[in-house]
Sequence to fold (70 residues):
Amino acid sequence: MKCYVCAKEGRDTDAVAVCIVCGMGLCMDHAIREENDVWEGGYPFPAKKIKQRLPRILCPECSLALKGDG
Fold:
């Protein structure tokens, strides 16, 4: 698998991770590792935040979208 971001820029780079949201292959330069909160609880609300945070690999675009900046 190749890095999608690099491929769009005309480069051929091997992927080392996959974005957990969109499934895009990512190289070391474009893979973003973030510690995200995890919420549990179904209907009806309220949901509660789990004490442990989970590491996740995201692409730059999904990382921005999840932060509300994109």
Q: What stands out?
A: Residues 60-67 form the longest helix (8 residues). The radius of gyration is 15 Å. The CA atoms of residues 61 and 68 lie 11 Å apart.
